[in-house]
Specification:
Blueprint: H1 4-9, E1 26-27, E2 29-38, E3 44-52, E4 62-68, E5 74-81, E6 92-99, E7 110-116, E8 120-121, H2 129-132, E9 139-140, E10 155-158
Parallel strand pairs: 1-8
Antiparallel strand pairs: 2-3, 2-10, 3-6, 4-5, 4-7, 7-9
Length: 159
């Protein structure tokens, strides 16, 4: 309670929660990181592709990332949907994460990125919980490179 007078008269309270069991998402999305750069106004960009390796459509394919400074502190987060948001079986689509804070762009030294849809995930649900909550592969992100006209995708994660 934020009101000091009301807080003084409360001697105890109870809190109730509820939950439901959900099923694990299959790990059927492949994430390729292409390139990253800081643009002329200081915004950080991370671009790549997602491939649906399932035999059914993946709806609302979302890429999310955490961005770290050189000491490992999170300085930004971002998410974006692939274009298009629905990926048919074996379809690949691009994404771009943009950090719209020009004070942070030059501080980014590494990142952790994952992808999921309504049906599928990148994280393998058979891994122990501690390993599945953080992407174990954090890649160094160059902060002063410029994008190429035809991006290459050298970093590949398949989970």
């Amino acid at each position: 309670m934020l009101d000091a007078q009301q807080s003084a008269v409360v001697s105890k309270y109870s809190l109730a929660t509820s939950s439901q069991t959900t099923s694990d998402e299959q790990a059927m999305l492949k994430l390729n990181i292409g390139y990253s750069y800081v643009d002329s106004i200081g915004y950080y960009h991370l671009a790549g592709e997602v491939t649906n390796q399932a035999d059914k459509t993946a709806n609302y394919v979302k890429v999310a990332g955490a961005f770290f400074d050189k000491s490992g502190k999170i300085v930004a987060t971002s998410f974006a949907y692939t274009q298009p948001e629905q990926l048919s079986a074996d379809q690949t689509a691009p994404f771009e994460l943009v950090i719209l804070d020009n004070k942070v762009g030059s501080q980014i030294a590494s990142y952790s990125v994952n992808v999921q849809s309504e049906q599928y995930a990148m994280i393998d649900p058979s891994l122990p919980a501690a390993q599945s909550t953080i992407n174990p592969a954090i890649q160094t992100a160059p902060t002063n490179s410029q994008p190429t006209t035809t991006p290459e995708f050298p970093v590949e994660y398949i989970y």
